[in-house]
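FAQ: What does the model actually see?

It sees only this:
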Amino acid sequence: MCLAVPGKITSISEADPLFRMGTVDFGGVCRDVNLGCVPEAGIGDYVIVHVGIALSVMHENEALAIRDDLRKLLPAEQEPSP
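And it is asked to produce this:
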């Protein structure tokens, strides 16, 4: 099963619109993500990410609710630190 997760864009590299990259914060874990599919996304926006590609921009409330629900699925000993 594949899973897409929400994260917040913290920086963007504007080098090439098609291969635009950004750093996305997934609740304390930051990863480089391809932003080519979401040209409208900006710093501070929340995006849904699958295999390193941001698929769509989403509302902050929805992103935080999904992140909270995903954390509830983790056993207590595997919960990420704040």
